[in-house]
């Protein structure tokens, strides 16, 4: 079914209201980037034609160096998680509590979902490496957590609001006793789903050269990049192994226990029969940690009992149909973007427009082929694994780890191997993109098979439905929502990872492949800030066009035609 046919069947208030914030937010972000590029210098430093320079290479040998890199990367992820969660909570509170800012924050969140965060790296690097690494990674959590909190608050039953007024609770008490418990499960789930992208972005900020030089700060990503630059496959592989250990420990010690703990606040628990993870059991059985947790609970309860704010009902926000002026304003924004980028610009001209359009088409072709190849591989294999409960349990654990693992740290090793096998640099990005997206697809297919009604499979078996009829009439309609979420999530994340996948020159020789990702990576490496902004705008538009023209119409069509029939 083509996206254009689906789109003709989804013209209505539901499709328009779902895309308004994303469309306006994306255009505002891109227009701001266009104007911002006019105030940037052409280059921070002169371009180094000899390839990468690394005047401050650290010694990569020794256990102490590896442990230091391990600890620095772990501390950066902890700091990014805390800052991103706090920023997401603040954005959600501003949108929910201040009606004046609701539209502005909603527009900002719609744009933040589309912006490739790695393009912020050269600007934040001016404030310091740690600020750049932690700040860029924390933005991976802010928008998903804020959006999840707003969605959760919109689903609070009106009867509970009436009960809070009957009990005489103030707005501050209602926030702690009603709204915060409703937002916790969705926020923790959003954090867990954003964790794979956050790991990839953190490793990318440590690996990617900025202004012609690799980072000399400790970190597993910097360790892998510097080892690849001097051709040390062993040190690169060792760093890739340690980042897998770190991601596994971080998930098993923090993220998964948070999901189990937050499940108590759901009206319908998702992990009702699941055993407690070992970290929660360790917390409950350790006397010191148990006392500290109890004191923290009492402190939060005392803080939530403060009678601040007024009493009253939660205001009901009615859905407003999008204004017909959105099309006119979108055209004005697009004209402003073109004028801002190319009219008498000190560093860009119309030739750059042709370059980025051609490079974007190449990258779109690669991304499409990678998604189709991964889907053709993992759809039958994932269905076969999901049909058996024993196989599915093992596969889900493996898929969770494969999804969390930042596979971009293996790009230098793969590029060194592809160089030895004499592969063309034009083929490298396709292989790397395929290698990156398959974990996301497998995890979503297994999740869809887990929620698939068993009665339908048994009925199809009793009716002896087999072959293509079984796939087209029984399985694929039930798996369609999970497959669509898998492909759309892999696509949106893949556009950001293209900056590393298409940048194949991890050694000291420049052998980058073509594509918009290589264009942005080259601009970041040479300190060409106007072209970094132009590449960021083009990547943002590519992500937004995929969501607006393909994924959202398909999502609405599936919701209308398949899910009501299942209910």
Offer a quick outline of the entry.
The chain has 567 residues and is mainly alpha-helical. It is built from 22 helices and no strands.
Radius of gyration: 25 Å
Residues in β-strands, percent: under 5%
Secondary structural class: mainly alpha
Q: Major sheet, described briefly?
A: none
Number of helices: 22
Report how far the terminal alpha carbons are from each other.
Answer: 23 Å
Shape: globular
Ranges where pLDDT stays below 50 over 5 or more residues in a row are 1-18, 46-56, 315-322
Calculate the mean pLDDT score and round it. 77
Characterise this structure.
There is one protein chain. By secondary structure, the protein is an all-alpha fold. The protein contains 22 helices and no strands. Helix 6 (129-154) packs antiparallel against helix 8 (171-207) and helix 20 (516-526) packs antiparallel against helix 21 (529-561). The chain is globular, with a radius of gyration of 25 Å. Residues 1-18, 46-56 and 315-322 have low confidence and may be disordered.
């Amino acid at each position: 079914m083509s996206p254009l046919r689906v789109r003709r069947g989804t013209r209505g208030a539901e499709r328009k209201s779902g895309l308004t914030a994303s469309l306006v937010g994306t255009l505002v972000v891109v227009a701001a980037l266009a104007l911002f590029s006019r105030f940037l210098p052409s280059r921070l430093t002169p371009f180094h034609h000899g390839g990468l320079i690394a005047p401050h290479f650290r010694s990569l040998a020794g256990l102490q160096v590896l442990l230091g890199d391990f600890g620095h990367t772990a501390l950066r992820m902890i700091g990014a998680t805390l800052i991103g969660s706090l920023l997401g909570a603040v954005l959600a509170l501003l949108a929910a509590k201040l009606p004046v800012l609701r539209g502005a924050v909603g527009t900002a969140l719609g744009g933040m979902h589309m912006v490739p965060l790695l393009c912020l790296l050269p600007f934040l690097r001016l404030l310091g490496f740690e600020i750049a690494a932690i700040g860029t990674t924390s933005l991976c959590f802010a928008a998903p957590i804020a959006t999840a909190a707003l969605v959760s608050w919109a689903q609070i039953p009106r009867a509970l609001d009436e009960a809070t007024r009957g009990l005489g609770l103030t707005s501050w008490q209602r926030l702690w006793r009603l709204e915060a418990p409703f937002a916790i499960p969705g926020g923790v789930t959003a954090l867990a789903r954003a964790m794979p992208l956050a790991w990839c972005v953190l490793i990318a900020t440590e690996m990617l050269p900025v202004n012609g030089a690799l980072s000399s700060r400790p970190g597993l990503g910097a360790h892998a990049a510097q080892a690849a630059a001097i051709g040390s496959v062993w040190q690169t592989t060792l760093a890739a192994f340690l980042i897998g250990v770190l991601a596994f420990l971080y998930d098993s010690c923090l993220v998964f226990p948070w999901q189990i703990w937050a499940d108590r606040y759901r009206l319908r628990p998702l992990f009702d029969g699941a055993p407690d993870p070992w970290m929660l059991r360790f917390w409950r059985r350790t006397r010191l940690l148990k006392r500290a947790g109890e004191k923290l609970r009492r402190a939060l309860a005392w803080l939530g009992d403060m009678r601040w704010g007024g009493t009253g009902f939660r205001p009901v926000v009615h859905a407003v149909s999008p204004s017909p002026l959105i099309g006119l304003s979108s055209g004005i924004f697009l004209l402003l973007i073109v004028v801002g980028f190319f009219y008498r610009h000190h560093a860009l001209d119309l030739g750059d427009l042709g370059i980025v359009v051609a490079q974007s088409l190449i990258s779109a072709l690669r991304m499409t082929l990678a998604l189709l190849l991964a889907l053709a591989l993992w759809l039958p294999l994932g269905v076969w694994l999901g049909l058996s409960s024993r196989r599915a349990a093992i596969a889900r654990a493996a898929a969770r780890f494969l999804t969390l693992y930042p596979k971009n740290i293996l790009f230098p090793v793969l590029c060194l191997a592809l160089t030895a096998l004499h592969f063309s640099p034009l083929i490298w990005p396709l292989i790397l993109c395929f290698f990156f997206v398959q974990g996301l697809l497998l995890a979503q297919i297994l999740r869809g098979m887990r929620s698939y009604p068993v009665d339908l499979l048994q009925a199809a078996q009793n009716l002896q439905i087999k072959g293509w009829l079984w796939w087209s009439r029984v399985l694929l309609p039930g798996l369609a929502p999970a497959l669509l979420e898998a492909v759309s999530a892999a696509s949106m994340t893949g556009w950001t990872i293209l900056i590393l996948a298409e940048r194949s020159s991890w050694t000291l020789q420049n052998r980058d492949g073509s594509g918009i990702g290589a264009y942005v990576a080259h601009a970041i490496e040479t300190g060409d800030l106007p072209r970094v902004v132009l590449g960021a705008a083009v990547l943002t538009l590519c992500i937004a066009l995929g969501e607006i023209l393909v994924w959202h119409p398909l999502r609405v069509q599936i919701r209308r035609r398949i899910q009501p029939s299942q209910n």
